[in-house]
Amino acid sequence: MTVQETSTNSGAVRRFERAADWAIYALFIAIVLGLPLVVDDVFWLNRIAKYLVFGMLGIAIALSWGYAGILNLGQGLFFGLGAYMTAMSLKLMSATSLQQGSDKPVPDFMLWNAEPGAVTDLCCINKGSFLWIPFQAQWFGLAMAIVVPLIVAFILSSSIFRLRVSGVYVAIITLALVLLVRLLIIDAQPITNGFNGLTDLGWLTISGFEFDPYMVETYYVVAGSLSVVLLLGRWLVSTRAGLILQSTRDDPTRARYLGYDVAAYQIFFFTISAGIAGFAGLLYVVAAEFASPSFMDIGFSISMVVWAAVGGRNSLIGACIGAILINTVEATASETEIFKEAWKLIIGGVFIFVVLYMPNGLAGIARDLVARIQRKRVDEGTQTATAAANRRQA
Amino acid sequence: MTAALTIDGLTVDFGGFKAVDGFTTVVNEGELRVILGPNGAGKTTLMDLISGKTASTAGDVHLFGENITNRPEHIISRHGVGRKFQIPSVFRDLTVRQNLEVAASGDPGVFRNLRLHMAGEDRARVEDVIELTRLGPVLGTIAGELSHGQMQWLELGMLITQQAKVILLDEPTAGMTGAETFRTAEIINEMKGSHTILVVEHDMAFVREIAERITVMHMGKLLAEGPMERIETDPKVREAYLGSGGIH
Ligand SMILES: Nc1ncnc2c1ncn2[C@@H]1O[C@H](COP(=O)(O)OP(=O)(O)OP(=O)(O)O)[C@@H](O)[C@H]1O
Ligand SMILES: [Mg+2]
């Protein structure tokens, strides 16, 4: 085969792979957005909305772990921050917060924790309760749900990546941090309601429309957000910056010697990943109506990594689908008592199997399949071309 | 003639042991300089010091008159220093084309690279380098699966794509077959003139193929400098190489 031929073939292969890739994205988004046409049980839609949120977490993990090579074992920190920021605003919008004997909203648990004789007002009912004052505006809580994770991630990643901390040390630091923040939240009982978290929330309200979690509109908010994040993420990793990021993952020294400030790339993508997790936290609260310190349990952050590994950490959509699938299977399986017990064991086994034998997860299998189909097509194409040439010669 | 690289009294002290010790030399623009020296002479360490991998403890390095001593690697690189490592260093999980595209860094900032396509001149440069290195047939191959020779050429190609003004090559033919070595000499000869090149090499046949001026290092110091004929007959050089079997 001549050089010319090989490169045209590889061009055709690339075009086919790209087309297959877009087809999968389009199909996924169509299914996610079209689901309410098939499922009319709002309880199921609400459930699936939560799994879609987990799918968004899968995207966040794939972005940092798969594309940047940064294993963040504390992604729950950013999810939790996003959730708490949102829940603070929604808490102040709930009916009970308006019935605490003040003309301005005050969360019920603050009264339970207040010193006798304290004024029922966010300004001074508890030490630190003033922090809640700006959350009376819903937009503030929603904005903070993304801004706070971005800021925390930026500060954290600036310090670790400028010091060239990498690999398992990043995992340990992020893990320690999520534990620390979880303790702080539990400890700050008077303003966070500690272990119990924030419950009894109001509904997200946009220009007068109230998003009841058990309403198809709320499902569309989540599904639409997921689609947008997925496409934006896809765009991000396709840019030159996304390619350079992958190069810093493969060989940071080489990337530095090509003039790239490796830390700047790591900080940027780590921070974006945290912002996505924060947004997921926001949506989760809208759909699930609570925020809890359990969002910052180590087990939850590790689960996210498992979802991404199973779906394929090198693929945004793979990790996203992995998260949705595992959670759907888990929910279905948990309905039987035996499975509920065995589930942790099963998922642990699946994780080990994937890490050992399927490093690219489900997305890797799909990719191999596409490659095989394409090779067959090219072979057939070459055969026809050769046959035609032979006929011409004859 | 313009001085491309000026090294003045460069020293690194590893807790009492000076791997490079008061080393001084000037490499002119467009020159190809070969650095010879027995094992452990400090050749790789010298390249580490120039490129910012290791911080020097005394002396300084100027690149086209600008002081680049002990700056971070990526800044030195942006000033125009490119480096090939003793062990080939490419992005092993990316395709050959992607490797070259990463090297075509018109602008290295994160935000400037939030776009899907390369600038036209960067793309043209990538195509030129593909031609020069003859990597055309393997553009879609994952770099980690290349043959040893191809990997070395890819790394050379990346340095050209990067538009490095001064290129440091650490044993570019180590582990290559005769034919591969010959091809590498061809590539380096083509790079001559448009780049200033500093090569560390042990293979004397290869050195004869490419060398103009030679600098001999011994125990971190400059031992001799001059054209090939003079170096080969220099008694000091013969003596330094005695222990390691002489220049072969
Ligand atoms: N970071 C370091 N700390 C201590 N000693 C070092 C360090 N780096 C290099 N050395 C020592 O400096 C000396 C010079 O090493 P260098 O690798 O520069 O030699 P070289 O000329 O490249 O040799 P070779 O031809 O074997 O590649 C060696 O004795 C080495 O052990
Ligand atoms: Mg060496």
Question: What report would you give on this structure?
Answer:
With 394 residues, chain A is mainly α. Chain A has one domain (3-381). Helices cover 73% and strands 2% of the residues of chain A. In chain A, helix 2 crosses helix 12. Chain A starts with a helix and ends with a helix. Residues 1-8 of chain A have low confidence and may be disordered. The radius of gyration of chain B is 18 Å and the shape is globular. Chain B has helices at residues 43-51, 73-79, 96-103, 120-133, 148-161, 178-191, 204-210, 228-233, 235-242, and strands spanning 3-14, 17-28, 32-36, 58-63, 66-67, 81-84, 166-170, 196-200, 213-218, 221-227. Chain B has one domain (3-242): P-loop containing nucleotide triphosphate hydrolases (Rossmann fold, 3-Layer(aba) Sandwich). Chain B has 248 residues and is an alpha/beta fold. Classes of the chains: A mainly alpha (394), B alpha/beta (248). At the A-B interface, helix 1, helix 8, helix 9, helix 10 and helix 11 of A face helix 2 and helix 3 of B. Bound molecules: adenosine-5'-triphosphate (ATP) and magnesium ion. Adenosine-5'-triphosphate (ATP) is lined by residues 14, 17, 19, 37, 39-45 of chain B. The site of adenosine-5'-triphosphate has 11 residues of chain B, from strand 2 and helix 1.
